[in-house]
Amino acid sequence: MERGEHEMTSLERVKEVWKKELHHCGLTEDTEVFGGHLFYDIIDLLTVFYKQGHSGGSAPIALKMFNRLALYKPLSLLTGEESEWGTECNEDQNNRCPAVFRRKDGTAFYLDAKVFWYWETQKETGVKYKVYYKDEDSREDIEFPFNVPDEPKYIEKVPAKKDKTK
Fold first, then answer.
1. Cα–Cα dist 29/20, whole Å
2. Neighbours of 24 (CB within 10 A)
3. Burial class (CB in 10 A: 0-12, 13-18, 19+), 125
4. DSSP state for residue 8 in the 8-state scheme
5. Inter-residue contact 103 to 127 (CB < 8 Å)
C-alpha cells in the first residue's frame, strides 16, 4: 500500500503530538529561549529516541541513563578517591560530577543539593507561578561513597530581597 499524499507516517504523527504538547506549555518554534532553538532541539532528541525503537522495557532505562549523563551526573557511586579529583577548572572539583568539590581539609560538598522556590504573580494576568533559584544555602556537605541524587531537594524559601517582612 502506497502512502497517500496526505497520509502521515507514524513519526510524522508523533511529531505533531510532541509539537502540540510543547505549544501547550508555551514553547513554540518562535520562542526566544536558549538561543531560540530549544523547541527544535527537543524535537530532534525525541526523533532520535523514537528512531532507536525502544520498547516499554528499555525506554525507561535508556532515559534514566541519558538524563543522568546529560546532567553530568555519574551512573555509580562517587568514591572520593584521588583519581576522581581535578578538572581543567579546579583541582578540587570532582571529575565525575562537577557539582562536587573538596575543601582543603579533605571534606566535600555537593553544590546542587537544594533548589529554593517561591510563588510569584504575573502582573499582567494575575497568574501565579513558581520561581526557582539557588544560593549559597543550596550546597550540602557529603561523605563518600556518595550517590548523587537524581533531583535536588525543593524547598520553599523567599529570597531575602523579596521578603518584605525583614
1. 11
2. 8
3. exposed
4. P
5. no
Cα–Cα–Cα angle for 5, 10, 14, rounded to 5 degrees: 115
121 vs 18, 46, 49, 130, 164, CA distance in Å?
28, 33, 37, 9, 15
**Residue bearing cell 572520593:** 80
**Residue of 116, 156, 114 lying closest to 139 (CA atoms):** 114
Work out the burial of residue 49: count CB atoms within 10 Å of its CB; fewer than 13 is exposed, 13-18 middle, 19 or more buried.
middle
Q: Are strands 114-121 and 140-142 parallel, antiparallel or unpaired?
A: unpaired
Residue 6: predicted pLDDT: 61
Instruction: Output the nine-digit C-alpha cell for 128.
Output: 501565579
Are residues 80 and 73 in contact, defined by beta-carbon separation less than 8 angstroms? no
Joined grid coordinates for residue 101: 568539590
- Where are the alpha helices (H) located in 58-160, listed in sequence order? 58-70
Tens of pLDDT along 61-84?
999 999 999 999 999 999 999 999
Distance between CA 42 and CA 18 in Å, rounded? 9
Q: pLDDT digits over 135-166, tens only? A: 999 999 999 999 999 999 999 999 887 655 54
Ordered by start, the domain boundaries in the chain are: 10-70
Prediction pTM value? 0.77
